[in-house]
Amino acid sequence: MRIAVIGAGWAGLAAAVEATRAGHHVSLFEAARIVGGRARALPVDAGAMDRLNDASPKESSAPLDNGQHILIGAYTETLRLMREVGIEEAAVLRRLPLSLQFADGSGIALPRWPAPWDVLGGILGARGWSWRDKTSVLFEATRWKACGFACDPRMTVAELCSRITPRVMSELIEPLCVSALNTPVDEASAQVFLRVLKDALFAVKGGGDLLLPLTDLGALFPVPALEWLANRGAELHVRQRVASLQPADDLDETKTTTWLVDDQPYDRVVLACPPREATRLIATALPNDTTALQWCESAMALRHIPIATVYALATAGLPEPMLCLRSDRENEPAQPAQFVFDRAQLGGRQGLLAFVASASTTDRQWLQAAVVRQAQLQLGITVEPLHTVVEKRATFACTPGLIRPRMRVAKGLLACGDYIDGPYPATIEGAVRSGVAAALAINAVDAPA
Predict the structure, then answer these.
(1) Average pLDDT over residues 61-78
(2) Residue 284 above 90 pLDDT?
(3) What is the pLDDT of residues 83-99, one digit of tens each?
(4) Considering only CA atoms, which of 444, 414, 448, 295 is closest in space to residue 5?
(5) What is the pTM of this model?
(6) Distances in Å between the alpha carbon of 393 and those of 177, 276, 333?
(7) In the predicted model, is pLDDT for residue 48 greater than 80?
């Protein structure tokens, strides 16, 4: 069949690759000039790049990204598709056991033991934790496992973990929650959090391992996927925004549905674009379809949370590629970042750090000044802000009972993306799995939505 995939982020590329593997003829449309969506390489202005080159002129460097991302070992579909397009994990990712440690050495680091003994060893060996701290989380983890990692869908992470001590909450639960769900513990869905914990720590060997990119995000999958598609005859339309989507017939259930994308006929269409863009196309194509309009309402009702990344030049590197930071926005001096990455240990320039501040709604100048203070207070180093990226719609708020749009929009029309209904929060793996699911559903979408 002729398949149109609209959007070349990780979900759209996954759908395009999987559909091509199944023997379909794919046309891929992307409005931006760089593929990868919200996990892509970043064009940096000339002034910032000159300062970066002046700091370490003789070293090669991976380009900056539109945000500091990490993968984990449980990203099985992402790793599979990377291999499919010719990318080997060891060449582009640094695999480390899960570590949520702070600059003072406190926190948890899992040993390289088989699951679940690695989790047990990490908790028992956590520096700075009292015996009460350790037993509180061990008791709760045992209870979660006994319950099949299921809970009341209305429960928040804070409620789920109400019997865990404050220190473990601040040094384990909160970092895990903000990194996986990008939602504060008092708002985040406990059910989604438990699913992430199950898959990362108990389902797959090495599932909790950190996979830190050694290259820019585009080189991990988006750019190789585009080349893979081109070599297999896919039609690629980069820097081409789809102007119109229209059904080619009246969606009669007795007919084979075809769609017109910019007046070109396709047997199936996969919308892999952001909610606002998908809604624009759907509402125009199906203005009187109640089901389609309900899909649009649920997509537009999602509340989005920003993530800011402050790239800075530092007087010294970090002892580890990644460290947790104690984030405090309520008291002065404000310390907004939750994580810091040493890009020199990840294929980047010497002295280049990336500070990540989830749910950051402040302006860039305030954020940069706060990160400078935070680096001095917690890391004991001086940093100079180089480039700050604020992804305003980085993720959706993953709250209890959240109703997310379905994959099926109408007959012959599918949607994919990290925001589409599924068990995972807004992560790279969630996007990839959604794209693969849409591609696998192509042959089954003759039925009504």
Answers:
(1) 86
(2) yes
(3) 999 999 999 999 999 99
(4) 414
(5) 0.91
(6) 18, 11, 27
(7) no
Helix segments in 74-147, DSSP class H: 76-84, 89-92, 117-124, 131-146
Percentage of the chain beyond pLDDT 90 is 80
pLDDT band at 447 (very low <50, low <70, confident <90, very high): very low
Residue 55 has pLDDT above 80, yes or no: no
Among all chains, which residue has been given the structure tokens 């549905």? 257
Q: What is the pLDDT of residue 60?
A: 45
Q: Across the beta sheet with 71-72, what order do the strands follow?
A: 71-72, 210-213, 93-96
The string over 36-48, giving b where at least 16 C-beta atoms fall within 10 Å of a residue's C-beta and e elsewhere, is: bbbbbbbebeeee
| 359 Cβ contact partners less than 8 Å away, ≥ 6 residues apart | 178, 182, 183, 184, 305, 306, 307
Tokens in use for 73? 């070992």
The single residue listed with the structure tokens 């070599």 is 231
Q: Which of 418, 371, 305 is nearest to 14 (CA)?
A: 418
Beta strand pairing call for 339-342 and 352-358: antiparallel
Amino acid at 341: F
- CA dist., res. 96 & res. 146, Å (int): 28
Residues sharing a CB contact under 8 Å with residue 303, sequence separation 6 or more, in sequence order:
396, 397, 399
**Cα 193 from Cα 198, distance rounded (Å):** 9
* Sign of torsion over alpha carbons 341, 342, 348, 349: positive
d(CA 441, CA 426) in angstroms, rounded, equals 21
How far from chain centre, in Å, is Cα 246?
31
CA 29 to each of CA 35, 82, 134, 237, 384: distance values in angstroms, whole numbers, following the listed order: 10, 21, 51, 5, 39
pLDDT digits (tens, 9 = 90+) for 136-189: 999 999 999 999 999 999 999 999 999 999 999 999 999 999 999 999 999 999
d(CA 144, CA 138): 10
